[in-house]
Amino acid sequence: MTAAPAAAGLYAPGDSWLHRAPAGAKLAALVAAVSAVVAAANLPAALAAAGAGAALYPLCGLGVRPIWRTLRALAPFLVLIALFQLLAGDAWAAARLCAQLAGAVLLSGLVTATTRVSAMLALFERLARPLTVFGADPRRVGLVLALTIRCIPMVAESWRASREAYIARGLRGRPHVLVVPVVVGLLRSAEAMGEALTARGID
Question: Per-residue pLDDT tens for 168-182?
Answer without folding.
Answer: 877 766 666 777 777
